[in-house]
Amino acid sequence: MQQTPQRTWLGALCVISAALFWGTLGPIMHILQRDTALTAIDISFLRALMGGLTLLVVARVWRPSWLHVARRDLPFFAAYGFLSVAAFFVLYATSVHINPVPVAVVLLYTAPAFVAVASWRLFGEPMSRAKVAALVFVLLGSTLVAGLWSATARHVTLLGLLVGVGSAATYATLGLFGRVALRRYEATTAMMFAFLFGALFLTPIVARDAPAILAAFRTHGVLILIMGLIPTAASYVLYTLGLKWLLPGQASILATIEPVVGTVLAWLWLGQRIDALQILGGVCILGSVLILQRDIETTAEAA
User: Fold this and answer.
1) Is 157 left (phi over 0), alpha (psi -120 to 50) or beta?
2) CA distances (Å), 167 to each of 91, 107, 183, in order?
3) Angle, helix 276-302 to helix 129-146, in steps of 10 degrees
4) Among the listed ranges 5-9, 12-16, 217-221, which one has the minimum average pLDDT value?
5) Residue 162 pLDDT exceeds 60
6) Contact 206, 213 (CB under 8 A)
């Protein structure tokens, strides 16, 4: 779809809204891991399952035609669910487990660089100076927000590095698959099938934890439903919808406001401390968004 100033603003609004919703995930996961016997991968499975079922209900009630895809496209959606949901969720959960959390976060937010290169090669998305500057600000800001300077962040193994980069690479596939899926399907349909396939791939991994999962539903069922709705179903659909009007590289940079939102919410909800360097990192990330938004407007006006 051709970019225009009005459409790019709509796309940016969708992606930024998605990032705001994603920012609620950290505090929710913290509560679930603190109060239940769920592992990070159990929570990832519940995200995929509840996100897929939520969108299934939405499609059934709102537009039943969204429930159907062509049989020939099922392998595409299986790959979408495997890479963008199952593999990403597992790799990121593993990265957080074996790496210091600041390192896991910063490695994840190298994803915009993967997306920018892939989108340039696959979709002809231009690599402007403004976009390169935005990528630099994103990496710097993520480093500061995550607290990469701390002593605990210095203990990184080669395995941890590879897993962290793998989480970024699989996260990067979200925008690439989404861009292709939107050529034929609505965002709700695309993410519904991706989540359900992702949950299917994760089922063998979490099967032995079924008692813990059922117990968590009994005590924290409402929170699990909220997790499936806000930082999963709603956020991913909004992000994918934004790809109608933005290129994947643009969307991935805009979405990096998520760690800023997560840090602020952790401060508000959980009483976690924010220091001056984290605030500076947030300013860098917001600056990258402003740089990119101006570049998007310039590109749209020239189209």
Assistant:
1) beta
2) 5, 8, 26
3) 160
4) 5-9
5) yes
6) yes
